[in-house]
TrEMBL record:
Keywords: Pyridoxal phosphate. Its cofactor is pyridoxal 5'-phosphate. This is Bifunctional D-cysteine desulfhydrase/1-aminocyclopropane-1-carboxylate deaminase, mitochondrial. InterPro entries: ACCD_DCysDesulf, TrpB-like_PALP_sf. It comes from the Eukaryota. Belongs to the ACC deaminase/D-cysteine desulfhydrase family. It comes from Sesamum radiatum (Black benniseed).
């Protein structure tokens, strides 16, 4: 088994060294490059998206119901899917698990950039939507 990682900040070398430090700390006796394949998925830069990346985030949400943020998990998933398309032999016959690490708060900074893709954004009014024993009402 090999872990494939897609970094969206810094570069692969930084993460190889970081991972090696963790492995050395537990006396694993393993080289990080032997167990993890780290690729750059930063694209244009940290928190800077292409129209294609944003469209990918929208398409995943519409087709699966899984919401990816465009700063972290969206870029990583986009990098993985791009890698799969460009290197199908590397992925053939493999079971794939994408670990969604969160980052949904990154969506708030991208509302303007994504509005043309998703239409109107609306924040939920939590004060009026939290179920209570006596019905829906104010939280506080």
């Amino acid at each position: 088994m090999q872990v494939r990682a897609y970094c969206v900040c810094d570069d692969p070398e930084y993460f190889y060294e970081f991972t090696q430090g963790l492995l050395d700390g537990i006396l694993a006796g393993v080289d990080s490059r032997d167990i993890v394949d780290i690729q750059n998925a930063k694209g244009l830069g940290y928190a800077i998206n292409t129209a294609e990346e944003l469209a990918f985030v929208k398409q995943i949400a519409q087709s699966t119901g899984v919401v990816l943020d465009p700063v972290y998990s969206g870029k990583a998933a986009y990098g993985m899917m791009k890698d799969m398309a460009e290197n199908p032999a590397k992925w053939e016959g493999r079971k794939v698990l994408f670990i969604h690490t969160g980052g949904l708060l990154g969506l708030y900074d991208k509302t303007e950039q994504m509005s043309s893709l998703v239409g109107n954004w609306r924040r939920m009014d939590i004060h009026e939507s939290v179920p209570r024993k006596e019905g829906t009402g104010k939280m506080f």
